[in-house]
Amino acid sequence: MKIIILGAGRVGQSVADSLVSERNDITVIDTDAARLRDLESRFDLRGVVGSGIEPAVLAEAGAHDTDLLIACAAQDETNLVCCKIAQLMFNIPTRIARVRSTGFKAEERLVGPEGFAVDRIICPEESLTRYIGKLIDYPEAMQVREFAGGRACLVSVRARQGAPMVSHTIAELRESNPEVAMRLVAIYRRFPDEPDRFVACSGETRIEPGDEVFVLAAQENIAHVLSTLHRQDARTAPPVRRIMIAGGGHVGLRLAHQLGQQAGRFHVKIIEEDPQRCVELASQLPPDVMVLQGDTTDEDLLGDEGVEELDLFLALTDDDEDNIMSSLLAKRMGASRVLALINRRSYADLMHGTEIDIALSPAQAMLGELLAYVRQGDVQAVHSLRRGVAEALEIVVRGDRKSSRVVGRKVSELPLPRDVHIGLIVRGLPDAQPGEAVEANDADADAVAPQPEVIIPRSSTVLESNDHVVFFLPHKRLVREVEKLFRVSATFF
Q1: How far apart are CA 234 and CA 226, in angstroms?
Q2: Phi, psi (5° rounding) for residue 417?
Q3: Which of 41, 230, 397, 404 is the most exposed place for a label (fewest CB within 10 A)?
Q4: Cα 68 from chain centroid (whole Å)
Q5: pLDDT digits over 319-363, tens only?
Q6: Are 297 and 314 in contact (CB under 8 A)?
């Protein structure tokens, strides 16, 4: 696929890194020649210096025969105008824009073909807020990824010594929980002086303390799954109540506002160093959110504000070093769980396995929204995992027995690559476009329409047209083989 990326900032670089590795033809436009030279030296792509709202620059970048435009420059206005020019002058089929403003999503006329002609709006800050919100809902999880409109989830959890199913085999886990719709799809195991090693899952695989376990399950079973792998008493973790946010930038403000609107559920404090920004935060946030002016790495400030009583400490500033240091300090002072926002991949890799519970990359939280447009076939959702090495993929089965290689076939008959797991199948969902969530039925529809069914596939399970199949792929290079298998022939319309 031929792709133009507008903007070589943090988001643009992360997007380019992910897409180049999949053998796409990438061109990046930016006004900073030094940034482009750095990208060209690291990745197999082409850089064009200039403004993305100038037709001549877009033409130089190859817009006349481009398949996808991803506009992720710093300014919303630049991205929107670039999408409109791409439609009017170059007829680029798919146009995606990074937009921070919340008003555009609700106004179809503004972003539709007669407006700025944006096919999909992405907002990394919104993606991060949604992602962190799931970690608050499931405090034992290291990550939570949704499929089929939230009806199914992929969670990763650190297996803890003494938890009910740790030190048992996967077969024993299934036998003890036969009524729970779940499947273990991958284990990453720590070894001294080595990166975590992927362990393929079979019935004989034993879950060891310290393993990072990936489980696909129906949404209603997630809390139970997490408790059996992480808690010694097998009870659901107590809810997160006390939260401290370090950093009052775009992400910190959005998250604090979201939490503050849930009256009585959370006790939220937000620390910001800039006095003027503190005034702005106080004027925009609900009154229940306490705004503090100070240094997020100040040990005395954290102590005075009761860091040892926190359920969750979130370091969300724009400075990786500050986020790392404040998280380590909060953990040392007694915070139950800490999360650090880290942009640099090398830093995130270094933090893996340290006292920081979760090292979160902003780009990884939203990459899936873009990848769903790059994938071939009817891909509904993509989630990049393990710092971009692994992937979880939701594909819709299309066609019939004549036009499809999978419809009407048993799971055991599918020629899937080794190590690729069909984790679960969701049957009975309405259609949706790539990257869109499938909304749950409303109350009136529930009375007449059957509820979608989450199926844990066995070797005898037969795939049907319109099934949503969720895969775990330990290596991204396996994606093309899976897509090819599920592609319909020319006889399907």
Answers
A1: 9
A2: -60, 155
A3: 41
A4: 21
A5: 999 999 999 999 999 999 999 998 877 777 677 667 888 888 877
A6: no
